[in-house]
Design a protein that fits this description.
Helices cover 56% and strands 17% of the residues. It contains eleven helices and eight strands. The structure holds erythose-4-phosphate.
Length: 218
């Protein structure tokens, strides 16, 4: 399973990259705004900075919602760096744009996916990645992990090559469960990734080992 970090924060991206487990980055307009990155030029420079920092795919989201402008914007984003994956919302015009990009060899991430039917359309259109938002489903009392299972089944039934990129991840158990179900990628905030490191028995076991070593080596 690939690990992406879901942030536009360069320090956090670097921390995950330094762990040696990072396969890519996902961003969205809200995550960019959270870091105070506004204006086309600053946003473009920020994407370039992220690409320089990581080895792996970097999702950059289009803002347009009509086919012509999505294509124009997506082509500009894809030209920025070979690591850029164009993130396109799951709407009618988005599906048309994904199909266009797919034929042109431009990789895409279909975002804001909340049903297996939407994921099916994204795969048919040729999306490289599909992003089901599990946390946002949990937020409205619907089991987000069920959606990952459903999409896994649909894609396996028809051998679709679109990769399931579990998104809107809130905590380490989401990551555990996605790995068990067989999501191809999980994108998570740094807090959920580093929480995977933690186990109280690891901490107490290490404390005991060090104490016993120190007793014998005074
Ligand atoms: C996915 O690519 C999105 O950036 C993301 O996971 C959104 O998650 P949220 O529900 O935490 O905003």
């Amino acid at each position: 399973m690939k690990f992406f970090i879901d942030t536009a924060n360069l320090a956090q991206i670097k921390e995950a990259q330094d762990l040696g487990i990072l396969d890519g980055v996902t961003t969205n307009p809200s995550l960019m705004a959270k870091e105070g990155i506004t204006g086309k030029e600053n946003i473009i420079n920020h994407y370039k900075a992220i690409c320089e920092l990581v080895d792996g795919d970097v999702s950059a989201e289009v803002i347009s919602t009509d086919f012509e402008n999505m294509v124009k914007e997506g082509e500009e984003l894809a030209a920025l760096h070979e690591q850029i994956v164009v993130k396109v919302p799951m709407i009618k015009e988005g599906i048309k744009a994904i199909n266009y990009f797919s034929k042109k060899g431009i990789r895409t991430n279909c975002t804001l996916v909340f049903s297996a039917g939407q994921a099916l359309l994204a795969a048919k259109a040729g999306a490289t990645y599909v992003s089901p938002f599990i946390g946002r489903l949990d937020d409205i009392s619907t089991n987000g992990l069920n959606l990952i299972e459903e999409i896994r089944t649909v894609y396996d039934n028809y051998l679709f090559e679109t990769q399931i990129l579990a998104a809107s991840v809130r905590h380490p158990m989401h990551i555990n469960e996605c790995a068990l179900i067989g999501a191809d990628v999980v994108t998570a905030p740094l807090s959920a990734i580093t929480a995977l490191l933690k186990h109280p028995l690891t901490d107490s076991g290490l404390e005991q080992f060090l104490a016993d070593y120190n007793k014998g080596n005074k």
